[in-house]
Structures are given as C-alpha cells and as structure tokens.
Amino acid sequence: MLDAKVAKLLNEQINKELYSAYLYLDFSIYYEAEGLDGFANWYMVQAQEERDHAMLMLQYLQNNGAKVSLEAVAKPDKTLASLMDPLKMGLEHEQYVTSLIHNIYDAAYSVKDFRTMQFLDWFVKEQCEEEKTADDMIKKMELFGGDSKGLYSLDSEFAARVYTAPSLVL
Ligand code: FEO
Questions:
Q1: 99-150 pLDDT, tens digit each
Q2: Which residue, 10, 26, 85, 156, is the most exposed by fewest CB within 10 angstroms?
Q3: How confident is the model at residue 79 (pLDDT cuts 50, 70, 90)?
Q4: What H or E segment, with its residue span, contains residue 140?
Q5: Which protein residues are within 6 Å of ligand 1, measured from CB?
Q6: Residue 76 burial class via C-beta count within 10 angstroms: exposed 0-12, middle 13-18, buried 19 and up
Q7: How far away, in angstroms, is 44 Cα from ligand 1 center?
Q8: Distance, CA 50 to ligand 1 centroid (Å)?
Q9: CA nearest ligand 1 atom 1, residue
Q10: Ligand 1: centre distance to CA 17 (Å)
Q11: Which regions of the chain does DSSP assign to beta strands (E)?
Q12: Is 161 left (phi over 0), alpha (psi -120 to 50) or beta?
C-alpha cells in the first residue's frame, strides 16, 4: 500500500495536471483567435500531453490499490494581453509544476517509497524538458517574433508539432 501522504499528493497532482491541460487549452484558444494556428496547435498538443500526465498518475494510484477522488478543475484565470504572455506564463507554470513533482518525490523519499520514486523519475525528466522548451519558445519569440515574417515562420514551426503518446509505460 502507498503511504497516505504520498497517495494524497499524487491524487492532488491529477487535478494539477488536468488544470495544466485546461490552461494550455486556454492558450490555444487565445492564439487561434489571434490567427496564429501554429501556436494554437502547439498548445493543443501540450494540453493532450497534460491530460496524459493526469492519466498516468491515476493509473499509478489504481495499480497500487490507492483510492482516486476527482476534484473540480479550476478555471484558467490568466489574462492574456500580448502574444508573449502565454509563453511567459507557460514557463512560470512549468516551474511551479516542477516544484510540485519535487515535493511528491520528497515525500516518497522520506518514507523510502522506492516504487513511487521510480515512477516519478520520468516526470522529473519530463519537467526538465518542458521548462527548456518553454524557455526556448520565449527566446525565439524575442528574437524573431517582432516582425510579421518572423512571426509567420515561428507559427509554421509550431504548426508542425504532432501529438505522441508518452514514453512511460506502467
Ligand atoms: Fe504535466 Fe507540463 O507538466
């Protein structure tokens, strides 16, 4: 059986990941309305990845006999006033999610829950990748997003992102 605190944190993380999906859907909707279909696509794919993260947590809890209880998902509350806003808010959000994952890892570590630590290893790495990608997008936007040709080119790049299922198998 999982330690009660670890199980509770993992259960809460399901909600946080679903909120992430909701937040990125909101970003996608914003860019779509701005006519940037590529940016919209990028965040739509990101929302799908976040849903996957939630499903992995849910499945992990079920596989380990822990109770899963779903809570309401909060409404995305970011005010998006410029094309750069979602990119910067996305990085901040990923840094926050990293802190949450580390907090669960810390709880697992303190009770010698090696199984959960191993499960979370994938998420620790994933967060590194997500923060790096978010940071790269900001840098590209700063460098190339200032004129219409650069923006068009970035939008075309982001349009090419396709969804792939997570590499983690439980
Ligand atoms: Fe599920 Fe973007 O972390």
A1: 999 999 999 999 999 999 999 999 999 999 999 999 999 999 999 999 999 9
A2: 156
A3: very high
A4: helix 114-144
A5: 17, 20, 50, 53, 94, 97, 130
A6: middle
A7: 13
A8: 5
A9: 50
A10: 6
A11: none
A12: beta
Place of tokens 């094309």: 83
| For the CA of 16, the nearest atom of ligand 1 | 1
Residues in contact with 97: Cβ distance below 8 Å, sequence separation at least 6, in sequence order: 16, 17, 20, 127, 130
Amino acid identity, position 57: M
Question: Contact, 124 vs 101, CB < 8 A?
Answer: yes
The residue whose two tokens read 């309401």 is 72
Distance 49 CA to ligand 1 centre (A): 7
1.20.1260.10, 1.20.1440.230, 1.10.443.10, 3.30.930.10: CATH of 4-159: 1.20.1260.10
